[in-house]
């Protein structure tokens, strides 16, 4: 039976690969993101799209109303929206403390608030039993990210997911987190990274290769399957062993 799948950040990278995996399984997919033109060009068969700023409560209310009209029940909710706050517009002025405050606020809006607001808006629409909520974290939540803000914003999803797993478990809903490492063919770095940096990231893995959006998408697809029905409140790392060091 076709399921209703809502994917934030569904227009590019991991979100897009995930949307294609579910659509190819015959599920109905809704792609969410900030850029309408990107969503419309995603090329996912029969997918619905809705452009919204998921860090804005009023915009998320609009998403919830749209989901209610088009889907009613949400079987799978996947949070792929977010990204590198360093690619957002910088703080105005040159005060260093203002720059720090801006960096942390931007990263938490992009990576934490987007997931929390969307989850809370759709909480009562999650299929009971059988619903799945899946968050995208990062290897940075374990190892840091240089500035701290991005890593912290991803790590904040972990306790939120654990609390949700407890709260929603009685309804037969599972909640899990996938934490990717270096994944190629995404917009995370804002373009191609330097070859030396890429080589260093690949060398940290035990598999000797970069991750792909399909690696993460396949993991998310499995976590949403009946076979993963007794797995909840877990963090699955998809990084070729890089988190363990090499």
From TrEMBL:
SMART domains per record: PKS_KR
This enzyme's EC code(s): 1.-.-.-
Domain Ketoreductase residue range list: 3-186
Classification via InterPro entries: KR_dom, NAD(P)-bd_dom_sf, Sc_DH/Rdtase_CS, SDR_fam
Domain of life of the organism encoding this protein: Bacteria
Gene Ontology MF annotations: oxidoreductase activity
Entry keyword Oxidoreductase: yes
Top EC category: oxidoreductase
Assigned keywords, A-Z: Oxidoreductase
PANTHER family: 3-OXOACYL-[ACYL-CARRIER-PROTEIN] REDUCTASE, CHLOROPLASTIC (PTHR42760:SF40), SHORT-CHAIN DEHYDROGENASES/REDUCTASES FAMILY MEMBER (PTHR42760)
Family recorded in the similarity comment: Belongs to the short-chain dehydrogenases/reductases (SDR) family.
Descriptive protein name: SDR family oxidoreductase
